[in-house]
Amino acid sequence: MRAEAGNRRDRLREMLADLKMPGALEAVDGILAQADSGAATAAEAIEQLLDAQIRLRNNRRLQTAMRSSRLPTVKTLGQFDFAFQPSIKREQIESLHELGFLERRENVIFLGPPGVGKTHLAISLAVAAAESGRRVYYGTLAGLIESLMDAKAAGDLSRRLRVLTHPALLVVDEIGYLPVSQDGAVLFFQLINARHERASTVLTSNKGFEDWGGVLGDEVMAAALIDRLLHHCHIVNIRGNSYRMREHRNLVRPASEQPRQGVAL
Ligand SMILES: Nc1ncnc2c1ncn2[C@@H]1O[C@H](COP(=O)(O)OP(=O)(O)O)[C@@H](O)[C@H]1O
Ligand SMILES: [Mg+2]
Questions:
Q1: How far, in Å, from the CA of 242 to the mean position of ligand 2?
Q2: Of the ligands numbered here, which is closest to the C-alpha atom of 236?
C-alpha cells in the first residue's frame, strides 16, 4: 500500500511537471500531507493546489507587466483601508476589481483632493488587469503628453497613438496638478478619442469636471473630452482626509496619547 501511495505521489509530481505547473508542484507535498492528516478535505486540497498555481501565474504576469507598463509601484485592493475613507463605496470598488468594465470598454474616473487614494486605486485596478493577463500602461497626464509631443516632433505621432490605444487599460494619473499647453491638450484629446469605445481608461483628478476647461486651457475641447469620457463611465468621488496627512497627524498627537518611549512633539 505504502509503495503504491509513494508511486502515486511520484506520478502526481511528474504530471504537474508535464503540465508545466511549477506553483502546484512546489506546493503539492505540503497539501498532500495536510490531506493525509485529515486537516484538509479532498476538495480543499485540490483548491489549494490550483490556487498555488494561479498565484504563481498571476505573479509572473504582474512581473512581466511591471517591465512594460511603467507602473510606478504595486498597490493592491487588499492594502486599501476602506475604514479610513468612508465616502468610498466598498462594493463599487470591489466590483470594479472584477474587471467587467474592461470587457465593456468603460472608463473609471477617481476624483478627490490630494492623498485620498486616487492613484492607489487606479494602480490596483491596473495590477488586477495585469494579473488577469491584460496589457496595461500607466502615465501621468504630463508624462503622456510629453511622450506624444516627442513623437509628434519626430513625425511619429500616429504610431505613438496606436501604441497608447492598444492596452486594455490605460491609467492617466494626475489631471489638474500641472497646467497643460494648448498643443498638449489637443494631443490628449486625440488620445482619448482614439481609445473611446475601444479600450478602458482610468483617470484621476484633484479637480472637478467644471475646472477641466481651465486645466486644458480650452472650455470647448474640455467639454468634448468629458462628453466622451463620461459616455460609459464609473465615477468615484472621494471626499475625505489625506492618508498621507494621517501619518503626519500620528506624529503630532498630544503627548498623553504618545507611546511611552515616543518623542513628544
Ligand atoms: N485608504 C487607504 N488605505 C491605505 N493606503 C492608502 C489609503 N489612501 C491612500 N493610501 C496611501 O497613501 C498614499 C497616498 O495615496 P494616493 O493614492 O497617492 O493619493 P492621491 O492619488 O489621491 O493623491 C499612497 O501611498 C497610498 O497607497
Ligand atoms: Mg495621485
A1: 11
A2: 1
Q: What is the DSSP secondary structure assignment for residue 180, as one 8-state letter?
A: -
pLDDT for 249: 64
Distance from Cα 237 to the centre of ligand 1, integer Å: 14
Q: How far is the CA of 80 from the centre of ligand 1 (A)?
A: 8
Strands 136-140 and 107-111: unpaired
| Ligand 1 residue neighbourhood (C-beta within 6 Å) | 75, 79-81, 84-85, 112, 114-120, 204, 243-244
pLDDT averaged per 10 residues, the chain (length 265): 83 96 97 95 97 95 90 97 96 98 98 97 98 96 97 97 97 95 96 96 97 94 95 95 79 48 42
Indicate where the chain has its CATH 3.40.50.300 domain(s).
77-245
* CB-CB contact of 188 with 180 (8 Å): yes
**pTM attached to this predicted model:** 0.86
Second CATH level (architecture) for the domain 77-245: 3-Layer(aba) Sandwich (3.40)
Alpha-carbon gap, residue 63 to 76, rounded angstroms: 14
